[in-house]
Amino acid sequence: MASHEQWSSKIAFILAVAGSAIGLGAIWKFPYVAGMNGGGVFLLLFLIFTIFLGAPMLLAEFVIGRSTQKDAVESYRVIAPNGKWHYIGYLGVATSFLLLSFYSVVGGWVISYAIRSFSGQLNNLTNDEYGQLFSTIISNPTEALLAQFAFIVITIYIVQKGVSKGIEKASKFMMPALFILFIILVIRSLTLDGAMDGVKFLLQPDFSKLTTDTIIMALGQSFFALSVGISVIVTYSSYLPKSEDLPKSVVSVVSLNIIISILAGLAIFPAVFALGFNPSQGPELIFIVFPAVFEQIAFGGVFFAIFLILLLFATLTSAFSILEIIVASIAKDDIKKRKKTAWISGFLVFLAGVPSALSFGVLSNFKIFDMVWFDLADYLVSNILLPFGGLLIALFITIRMSKKDLFDEINQGGTMTKTLFSIWYNSIRFVIPIGIVIIFLNSIGII
Fold first, then answer.
1. Rounded CA gap, 349 and 318, in Å?
2. pLDDT tens-digit readout, 42-85
3. pLDDT grade, residue 168 (50/70/90)?
């Protein structure tokens, strides 16, 4: 019988989970969502919700995975062998499959931009031309598909090598590099004339901009930025030895996620404000505004190329975790089966992503509920499947696991006082389900 893999060290696990959590959620999504929702007041709410909602949920998934040492599906089956709770794992696998199908398309866009940055094609363009370039890239079927395929192949190559030889090695290199590159970008952005307006926008809450939408968006961003709700973290934590301190691991991952989100804001908003761009540009903030911003900065082409490398690193680390839950659930602990499963699963994900890749070109007129396929897939994952999965996990851990078992598992390898445990338990049992229901009801337009 094949043995269950494990992370070689705590830092390897932290970097891998942080890479999964950060991804495009912190680097791409956080700045544009913050820009559209008031800046500083959004950041304040994001911090509050991340600490009091996201962190407890992260610990819950840690407990499920580490206690069973099984993949996402089997973890629920081991704890609740006579019920249907293991379908939470299947839901996570299905959600991950759909998520990676359109996520890989965005990864392909990053590759396309990176190639253009190194070939000099992003230099000396007007602001309008940057917008036209983005439209050209996403509407070109050949380029969109080739770039998406390249992104998937890189992801498969790393994941098929396993945890210690693949994901761990890649994360150990990519995550430190991500921090170094971000620091370089932040320093350059902060040295621009007028940069402090951007800093104030991000760090100084303006409560006149506080709206119900801002609260809902911050709540959703804090929850989803940590990759909780689809059992990715259950899978990653199943590779943890019992000696690891789970509460401290949560603190480390949450801290890294918050730091990267703030650094992303400090890299973007000072430059945007200094050069007169609109902070609420939207999802295209990075792909349209950033190249235009860096074009007006000394050595801007170099800095933008660095940023694209950083973005590619972050996108890949998230993709590793998404594909891993699929592969681990099918291959179990069979190393030989893992390689075959990774390539077959990855290729199927690519095929499933073809409609998303073509959504802005040849399939732009094919719409369901007035949405192209890319937007529909994003909507299903972000607004329905993720909150629903998170709700089920929160219910599962308080219904199917006793308080004593939870307390004992959390305190293997670490310590958590009974007071903190009680706060965490009641948060999982009451506060988080209510928060997820609010997100879900908002996503379907009821509130």
1. 15
2. 999 999 999 988 899 999 999 999 999 888 889 999 999 988 99
3. low
Q: What's the token pair of residue 269?
A: 């908003």
Phi, psi of 276 (to 5 degrees): 80, 25
* Kind of pairing between the strands at 371-372 and 367-368: antiparallel
Q: How far apart are CA 254 and CA 238, in angstroms?
A: 19
Locate the domains of the chain by residue range: 10-443
Report the C-alpha gap between 129 and 127 in whole angstroms. 5
Question: Would you put residue 2 in left (φ > 0), alpha (ψ -120 to 50) or beta?
Answer: beta
Q: State the Cα–Cα distance between residues 78 and 67, nearest whole angstrom.
A: 10
368 φ, ψ to 5°?
-125, 125
Contacts of 70 (CB under 8 A, 6+ apart): 4, 77, 78, 238
- Measured at the alpha carbon of residue 304, what is the angle toward residues 303 and 305, in degrees to the nearest 5? 90
**CA nearest neighbour of 380 among 446, 319, 444:** 444
In the predicted model, what is the mean pLDDT of residues 420-445? 85
Tell me which amino acid residue 80 is. A
- Reduced to 3 states (helix: H, G, I; strand: E, B; else coil), residue 240 is coil
E strand or H helix at 60: helix 55-68
3-state helix, strand, coil in the chain (%, to 5): 75, 0, 20
Six-digit token string for 307: 């940023």
Q: Tokens representing 262?
A: 């703030």
Whole-structure pTM value:
0.86
Say how far apart CA 207 and CA 329 lie, in whole Å. Answer: 46
In angstroms, rounded to a whole number, what is the distance separating the alpha carbons of residues 28 and 42?
16
Contact 158, 167 (CB under 8 A): yes
Q: Which residues pair with 368 in a beta bridge?
A: 371
Q: Are 374 and 105 in contact (CB under 8 A)?
A: yes
Longest dimension (CA), the chain: 64
H or E element that contains 372: strand 371-372
Q: Name the 3-class secondary structure at 23.
A: helix
* Alpha helices (runs of H) in 191-281, residue ranges in sequence order: 195-203, 212-224, 232-237, 246-274
What CATH class does 10-443 carry? mainly alpha
Cβ(198)–Cβ(273) under 8 Å?
yes
SS3 371: strand
Strand partners, 78: none
Distance CA 407, CA 415 (A): 9
Cα distance between residue 12 and residue 194, in whole Å: 40
Query: For residues 311 and 110, is the Cβ–Cβ distance under 8 A?
Result: yes
